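Backbone-to-sequence.
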């Protein structure tokens, strides 16, 4: 007995007119639809988190790459994303097929994502340093390219599942739970890296298993989700014009800047966390419980954030979450050897706030896309989410470059007692950078004007256009 495509609820059924109808009442999606949409993100979360937390340390300590070289590789991969992200977003908006705009991309990406993830960690031990560097460089660029082919259309599909202001919190909140579960499983896998027995063999076993599970979930989602047929054929015919419209949209421009700043701040912390535990706290084993508590709390906090989203404006909630994340991360500069217990509390508070960011940012991004539809009568979810993906990847590349050069400039040598300069560089990346970026993000986001009332007016005007 086969699976039938996951249905849209009656209120979300296709309209006769290509524009979306207004939302006169809460539009609640079937849970099955959201679960099918969210399931591939567990594997994506595992891949992204393992790469963010440990690829830099794995390549320097196990493969022998120079920190600055690895930081440069990660930055170059983000420069390439400046080409791949916009192209995938634009092409997926324009795609017309029997199964929709986004699903062909999700299906096509499944096996390449899994294979490139394994290659990124599987450089043969017989290679010399130069050849290993080249292997890793090619694999990293390939992985991020394949991930773009999946992630941009997948996020764009999520934005189109519902037009309801509150239901979008539920869609992206449940999606974030799956991402969080995948992220937490990374801390189970890290034990095999940290024990130092066979890191290369362990890396292959872990990445092969993660790739297989992720590919299977992508294939199921691509095969059985449904898309709105009234959105097909409504992408922009002019790629350059589409990107100009993203930049010209004041809500999109501001949210893009805020998102980039918070990603820079958080990216430096995830890149440096393993070094922080080993060389500042002098307890490498503290890395797993501290970072694990952050991600567990981020997942556990999601249902309360969804509930708060039904009572408060997203802008108010996001400002509060950013303030808490910035304050907790800034405090990391004051801890040292023996401070593992208070750090667990700080990490837990940061995790609660990060859960809010991960629910509210994509939900707001979907609201912003509605304002573009009102202005252009087009549905460009692919182009818009490509811009946010590029911002996130660029921020991570900058974080990796800063981390790599900070370590190298301070005289860092792997597996050697660090100097005071090395510890200071690690502390600064973990605390000062997020203090500055989150502070700037809060100041910028205070100018955001797409409130709940403003979005309701956008949906009302789209409904009036549909009626005409």
């Amino acid at each position: 007995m086969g699976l039938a495509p996951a249905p849209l609820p009656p209120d979300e059924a296709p309209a006769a007119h290509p524009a979306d109808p207004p939302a006169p009442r809460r539009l609640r999606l079937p849970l099955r639809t959201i679960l099918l949409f969210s399931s591939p993100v567990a594997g994506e979360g595992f891949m992204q988190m393992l790469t963010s937390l440990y690829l830099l340390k794995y390549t320097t300590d196990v493969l022998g790459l120079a920190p600055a070289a690895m930081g440069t590789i990660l930055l170059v991969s983000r420069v390439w994303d400046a080409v791949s992200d916009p192209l995938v977003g634009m092409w997926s908006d324009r795609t017309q097929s029997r199964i929709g705009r986004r699903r062909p991309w999700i299906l096509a990406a499944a096996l390449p994502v899994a294979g490139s993830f394994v290659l990124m960690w599987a450089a043969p031990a017989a290679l010399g340093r130069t050849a290993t560097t080249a292997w890793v460089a090619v694999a990293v660029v390939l992985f991020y390219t394949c991930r773009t082919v999946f992630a941009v259309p997948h996020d764009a599909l999520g934005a189109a599942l519902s037009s309801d202001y509150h239901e979008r919190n539920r869609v992206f909140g449940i999606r974030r739970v799956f991402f969080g579960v995948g992220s937490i499983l990374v801390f189970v896998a890290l034990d095999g890296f940290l024990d130092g027995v066979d890191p290369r063999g362990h890396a292959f076993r872990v990445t092969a298993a993660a790739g297989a599970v992720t590919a299977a979930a992508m294939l199921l989602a691509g095969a059985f989700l449904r898309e709105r047929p009234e959105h097909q054929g409504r992408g922009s015919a002019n790629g350059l014009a589409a990107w100009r419209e993203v930049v010209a949209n004041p809500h999109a421009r501001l949210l893009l800047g805020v998102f980039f700043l918070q990603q820079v701040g958080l990216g430096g912390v995830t890149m440096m966390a393993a070094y922080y535990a080993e060389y500042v706290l002098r307890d490498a084993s503290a890395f797993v419980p501290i970072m694990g508590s952050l991600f567990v709390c981020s997942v556990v906090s999601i249902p309360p954030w969804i509930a708060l989203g039904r009572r408060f404006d997203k802008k108010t909630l996001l400002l509060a979450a950013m303030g808490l994340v910035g304050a907790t991360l800034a405090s990391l500069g004051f801890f040292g050897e023996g401070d593992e217990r208070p750090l667990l509390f700080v990490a837990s508070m940061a995790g609660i706030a990060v859960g809010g960011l991960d629910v509210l940012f994509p939900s707001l991004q979907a609201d912003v896309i509605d304002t573009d539809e009102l202005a252009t009568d087009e549905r460009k979810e692919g182009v818009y989410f490509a811009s946010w993906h590029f911002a996130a990847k660029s921020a991570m590349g900058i974080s990796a470059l800063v981390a790599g050069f900070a370590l190298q400039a301070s005289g860092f040598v792997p597996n050697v007692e660090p100097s005071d300069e090395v510890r200071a560089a690690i502390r600064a990346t973990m605390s000062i950078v997020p203090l500055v970026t989150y502070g700037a993000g809060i100041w910028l986001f205070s100018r955001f004007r797409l409130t709940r009332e403003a979005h309701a007016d956008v949906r009302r005007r789209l409904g009036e256009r549909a009626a005409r």
